[in-house]
Amino acid sequence: MFPDHTLADHEETTPAAGGRTPAAADDDTAIRELIERWVRAVDAGDLSGTIADHADDVVMFDVPPPAEGVRGLDAYRAAWPEFLQWQAQGARFELTSLEVTAGEDVAFAHALLRCGTSEELARDPRNRLRLTFGLRRQDGRWVIAHEHHSFPTVEGDSDSGSAEVRALHGRWFLDTAAGDLDALMAPIADDVVSYEHEQPLQYVGADSVRQVCRRGLEASSERVTWDVPDLKIVARGDLAVGWGLDRVRIERSDGSAVEHWSRGTRVFQRIDGSWQMIHQHVSYPYDPESGIARTDLRP
To answer: Distance (Å, rounded) from C-alpha 90 to C-alpha 117?
Structure first.
């Protein structure tokens, strides 16, 4: 009633060590080779090799926007040229680990890669690009249906730190317009050192800087505003620096306004979870012939 099975037949269908069948092991190998080809293609700047073995409806969640991901093979193809141009300038895209789990028609894999220029990798040699792949068997072969790329975020990393320090400046601008001295002083460290426009050579401590800010707010009965239109910020870890041309504008009651520009550099440290200014340097250029500060210059 039932067909006979020989011992050889039984051996061919018995799971291998670890509960895996030979067919599953073959799938693991095929998927591993597919992903390794993809990594080599990206590293070589090979666009056709990069998009090979991807489903027409592939969805990629990449490091850069859009937040909703890149959807479809045409959009996937369009997302790569800029990265591959950067890659061709000497960056590395190197697989360091790969784990594959394959089912009958669906599989997933996760991998870690070195991704960056020599300088970036030397600065942070442990940083890795993290990849997750979702695959399906289609027309008898494995294709990638989903990719998810990410870098781990670091507390106080450059992006979040820059945004926080920029927001701090934005609050300063609003507090200046409101004439709120207490709010202006809130993000200034107790031991701040400030090089101001006027003498002495330096102001040390928040109390002395507070007096400078008070004089600035009280110097005119008109509305005083301050901003840095070309503000640049670099943040690393718990330290940040911002610089640009400071614009102070005094709006008079008759509708006219007086505006002057100077140079400003400010250094910040994250202390107890919040950014505080630990150093400031503001100055006017001077006329080398007369020795007089030029407060009339415009960008």
So the answer is: 6
Q: What number is the average pLDDT over the span 169-176?
A: 88
Polymer length in residues for the chain: 299
pLDDT at 198 over 60: yes
Please provide the CATH number assigned to the domain covering 7-150: 3.10.450.50
In CATH, 158-283 is 3.30.70.2660: no
Torsion of CA 94, 97, 98, 99, to 10 degrees: -170
pTM above 0.85, yes or no: no
Domain boundaries, the chain: 7-150, 158-283
The pLDDT-based confidence of 159 (bands split at 50, 70, 90) is low
Selection from 144, 136, 159 nearest residue 63 by Cα = 159
Counting residues of the chain whose pLDDT is more than 90, the rounded percentage is: 57
User: Tokens 């291998």 identify what position?
Assistant: 16
Type of residue at 55: A
